[in-house]
Each structure stands twice: as structure tokens, then as C-alpha cells.
């Protein structure tokens, strides 16, 4: 697989592997509703985004202390680095933790400690993107932003995730404006299950610089031409799309069509502990199933570096190593 890569669409809470769920539950005295690992794994069959989110949020009950978040982050960094990732911009969902009594500062300090260790021990550079849960009240999103900015941890950006349909990006216009004024970069999930209209809103109302998923853009030809002309990066997650039934199977994934339309596509893992693979697994399976050539894989790797928010020097360094 081509290396080095940047991973730009990765939910840290979605890297919570079944073994770690049991370990943290034991340590924190949390009673799990699963008999054993097999019983838990048997539930990793999803009908749609919401059926996944129900399990994803439930399993977060095991994450309680800053040390838990540091452990989770370090485990992701080690695994991603082994798969060729050299720069990662990671999503965190603070509202999913404050809702169960874990302060935003605890979450972000733990994540920052894990990422600091990844940089010093692995040379993996990174940034934190705090995500608004779009299916919760706007006032709560505003509070999340304020608490995140006050946590004393460097933040890279703001994102928008959770249940998409019925929760258009425009709801969060003011929150994204405030985030931009605070110096945060802006991204949003759009066009995963939601319609192309949500991509237009993400671009024109929220002012995002990248769109997460975005696969449904292909239903709107004018939108595709705009995304291609402006080279707006789309952080595509093929194994996620298969597991959440956005596409029937990997052979039916529109990745190749997206590349052929001139879109700036990057490959990512989304929630690798739940969807059957990390970013190198996504690349390998797309190569094998969609017949991606070595040149196309190299293009995806270069796209990921170009679409990242890394500084110019770091980007040049990673691109030079790609050859
Ligand atoms: N949160 C974690 N994974 C997500 C996804 N694929 N879509 C929306 N929200 C998410
Ligand atoms: Zn996602």
C-alpha cells in the first residue's frame, strides 16, 4: 500500500475495539449488556446509520477518565501508523460524553495526551476536530464549542456528524460561524444518507472546506461540477458505506466514478472497529474489488495529504516521501 497517508475521516470513539470495551468496562465497573466478545460482535450487523449509532453511543459508556481516552487514542495511533498513516485529523464527539457526565475537558485532555505520545514516539502528526451531534439541540452544540475552546487543548476544527436525515447543516450556521471566528477549520458530514441539498448547505451556509462522505453528490450533476471545479475534498469511507448499507456491496461503490468525474477523493476508515477495517484495509479491499491501479492508489494517498490541514512544510515532506 502507498505510504505515507493522511487519514481525515476517523471517529476516535469508532476505534473502540471489542477487547478494549471489555477491558475498560472491567476497570470502570461498568456492567455491559453482552455475555462475551462473541455476543458483542454478533451485534455488528447494521441496517443503516442509526442502527450503528445506537451501538456506537452505548459502548461509549465504558470511557470515563482522561486515561481511557488517552489509551483509546494511542491504540488507534499505533494501528493507523502500522497501516501507513503519517498524519491524522481525528473526530471526537464531546456531547456524547457530557450527556453521561464526562466533562469535555476530560475527553479532550485524554485525546491530546494520546496524540502527543503518537507524535513523539511515532512521528504521527495530528489534529483534533470536535463534532457537533446534529440530532441534538443547537444550544447544546453552542455549549460544546465553548467548552471545547476553554479546555486548554489545541483544536484544529469543527465537524458535524450523527444521524443525518432530518438534520440539515443550516441548523448549525451560527455555531459554525462562531467556530470560524475562533480560528477553527470547518468540515461536515453530508451526503452519506442525506440528499445532495445537504452538501450545498454545508458549502454555502456552513462554509466547510471538506465534505465527509459526500457520495450522494453524484445525484446532482451541477453539484459534481462545482465540487470538481473547486477541488473540494470528499473524505470517502467505502467499508463504512457497505456496512451501513449506503451501497449494496463494495463492487457497487461509486469511488471509481467519483475519481473519473475529477473529484478530489480521499480514502478513510470512519469507525474502523465497527466496519471491518482500518484505512489500509479500505485501500486493499478497494484495490482488489474495484481494480484500482497503483497509480490510482498513489493519487488517493497524495489527495489525502493535499486535502489535510497540515502545514505547508509537513505536506511537502509527506508528498516528497510518496515519490
Ligand atoms: N458518527 C460516527 N460515525 C458516523 C457516520 N458514519 N456518520 C455520521 N455520524 C457518525
Ligand atoms: Zn463519519
TrEMBL record:
Entry note: cofactor: Binds 1 zinc ion per subunit.
Example of a GO biological process term: nucleotide metabolic process
Function: Catalyzes the hydrolytic deamination of adenine to hypoxanthine. Plays an important role in the purine salvage pathway and in nitrogen catabolism.
One Pfam family it belongs to: A_deaminase
Lineage, highest ranks first: Bacteria, Bacillati, Actinomycetota, Actinomycetes, Pseudonocardiales
The reaction(s) this protein catalyses: adenine + H2O + H(+) = hypoxanthine + NH4(+)
Cofactor(s) demanded: Zn(2+)
Positions that bind Zn(2+): 9, 11, 189, 270
Molecular-function annotations in GO: adenine deaminase activity; zinc ion binding
Site (Important for catalytic activity): 213
EC identifiers of the protein: 3.5.4.2
Record keywords, A-Z: Hydrolase, Metal-binding, Nucleotide metabolism, Zinc
Name of the protein in its database record: Adenine deaminase
Protein's UniProt keywords contain Hydrolase: yes
Matching InterPro entries: A_deaminase_dom, ADE, Ado/ade_deaminase, Metal_Hydrolase
